[in-house]
């Protein structure tokens, strides 16, 4: 069983995807982490994230088992990830890795921006998770403040709008809802309630039974 979870930044898609994976005993891949890791390598090498050669090279040599989880979670890594992710060569280099993950025997949950449209168009169930920009900016701001950053909510809201624009307007694999994706709006729904709804939909559509 393959479950595709796409959505906007700070919509809750990562938490929902992890929850689905745990509930059904499936492997989970956060594909945004791959783009972030490529961006971190490019920045570490002192190159510009828009430098096509540097970003493609980093994507081709990426070792997913050695991703530095702390380094990829900064606001700088996120902004640079959105720039490297717009490059077709980077997307092509990461495609096979994501496909292989999806095709493992016991099934998988992948979350990102183009899972239901490009990486796994044949997924058993597809979700598109979104929330109003103001709510998403507040969530991301709280996360960063809790992590010790002193950032302003207005700056986060501006960065989020810029990331949304870049992710949705790029030519290759832009962020968009697959026609057959179920929309879950988390503006007024807690993450727990969203996960419960996603689990209910998966059970109905596939006949799978939760393990937890
Ligand atoms: O979900 P995230 O914030 O960790 O993603 C970081 C960036 O990577 C985001 O700006 C868009 C890009 N991305 C993508 O283009 N395709 C994916 N499947 C996942 C992430």
Question: Features of this protein?
Answer:
212 residues; alpha/beta; Rossmann fold; 5-stranded parallel β-sheet; globular; binds 2'-deoxycytidine-5'-monophosphate
Instruction: Tell me the total number of β-strands.
Output: 5
CATH fold-level label:
Rossmann fold
- Apparent shape: globular
How many domains would you count in the coordinates? 1
Give the topology string: H per helix, E per strand: EHEHHHHHEHEHHEH
| Assigned CATH architecture | 3-Layer(aba) Sandwich
The overall pLDDT, averaged over residues, is: 95
Strand order of the largest sheet: 2-3-1-4-5
Quickly count the helices.
10
Report the structural category: alpha/beta
Question: For this structure, what is the CATH class?
Answer: Alpha Beta
Query: What ligand molecules are bound, each kind once?
Result: 2'-deoxycytidine-5'-monophosphate
Report, as a whole number of angstroms, the end-to-end distance: 17 Å
CATH superfamily: P-loop containing nucleotide triphosphate hydrolases
Measured as a percent range, the helix fraction is: 40-55%
């Amino acid at each position: 069983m393959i479950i595709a979870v796409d959505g906007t930044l700070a919509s809750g898609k990562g938490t929902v995807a992890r929850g689905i994976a745990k509930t059904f005993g499936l492997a989970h891949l956060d594909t945004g982490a791959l783009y972030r890791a490529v961006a971190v390598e490019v920045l570490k090498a002192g190159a510009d994230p828009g430098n096509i050669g540097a970003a493609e090279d980093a994507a081709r040599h990426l070792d997913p088992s050695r991703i530095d989880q702390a380094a990829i979670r900064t606001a700088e890594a996120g902004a640079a990830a959105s720039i490297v992710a717009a490059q077709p060569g980077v997307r092509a280099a990461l495609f096979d890795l994501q496909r292989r993950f999806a095709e493992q025997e016991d099934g998988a949950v992948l979350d990102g921006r183009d899972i239901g449209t490009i990486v796994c168009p044949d997924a058993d169930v597809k979700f598109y998770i979104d929330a109003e920009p103001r709510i998403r900016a507040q969530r991301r701001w709280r996360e960063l403040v809790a992590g010790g950053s002193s950032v302003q909510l207005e700056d986060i809201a501006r960065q989020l709008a810029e990331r949304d624009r870049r992710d949705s307007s790029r030519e290759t694999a832009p962020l968009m809802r697959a026609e057959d994706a179920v929309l879950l709006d988390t503006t007024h729904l807690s993450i727990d309630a969203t996960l419960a709804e996603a689990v209910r939909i998966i059970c109905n559509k596939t006949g799978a039974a939760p393990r937890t």
